[in-house]
Specification:
By secondary structure, the chain is mainly beta. The chain is built from 3 helices and 11 strands; from the N terminus they run βββββαββββαβαβ. It has helices spanning 59-63, 122-125, 174-180; strands at 2-4, 21-22, 25-26, 34-37, 45-56, 75-87, 92-93, 111-112, 115-117, 152-161, 185-195. The chain has a 6-stranded antiparallel β-sheet with strand order 8-9-6-5-10-11. β2 and β3 (25-26) form a beta hairpin. The termini are far apart.
């Protein structure tokens, strides 16, 4: 199975129209276009995740905008998109079809490309914020700290599954999807783009 996007080149920068943040405020927050092919026989559904693998792990350092976050700072995952149960006959997600602009307090639990939306990690990031706090379902794009010296990578991972539905709670996370699809993955395809808001010298 292969996946690619016409919204960005593999391994190259993601345009700000597909990001939640840009240098002067919010970005377009549109989901990028994705298309896939060579789906294995026996596929009954797909699961889709978008994960930033370069998220800083020290919240205090993220909050301190006066101190650049070093490239070597320890990193973790930040989930930007979770969808489960995408029908087996779907081969493309058009740009902007699942997210178009920033929804303060998050989009509701609905569907993307015929699959169920899961919670992304902005749910935790904005917890307690009077303006932005809420449950963030579906896609919300890149918004790395502007003082982070590392260019972030955003991996779009598509899993072909041998079941039509996964046993998931009503409000599920990427962790729930990984657990539920264990033993049901026929194959995986991935592509990634990069994004940074850093304008400082290294």
């Amino acid at each position: 199975m292969k996946i690619h996007s016409n919204s960005f080149e593999h391994g190259k920068p993601i345009p700000a129209e597909f990001a939640m943040g840009k240098p002067d405020g919010f970005g377009g927050n549109r989901n990028p276009q994705l298309v896939w092919e060579a789906v294995p026989i026996g596929t009954k559904s797909f699961a889709l995740l978008c994960i930033d693998t370069d998220a800083p792990t020290d919240g205090a350092l993220v909050a301190d905008e006066s101190t650049p976050i070093p490239v070597a700072h320890p990193r973790g995952d930040f989930v930007h998109w979770v969808v489960a149960g995408i029908p087996a006959d779907v081969r493309e997600i058009p740009a902007g079809s699942c997210s178009d602009d920033v929804t303060k307090q998050g989009k509701d639990a609905g569907t993307d490309a015929g699959g169920r939306r899961g919670l992304n990690d902005y749910s935790g990031w904005f917890a307690g914020d009077a303006v932005m706090g809420g449950q963030y379902f579906g896609y919300d794009g890149p918004y790395p700290p502007a003082h982070d010296l590392r260019v972030h990578r955003y991996f779009f991972r598509l899993f072909a599954l041998d079941v039509e539905t996964l046993a998931l709670p009503q409000a599920f996370t990427a962790g729930d999807v990984f657990k539920a699809m264990n033993g049901h993955v026929l194959t995986e395809a991935a592509t990634y783009g990069t994004y940074t808001l850093n304008t400082r010298e290294g």
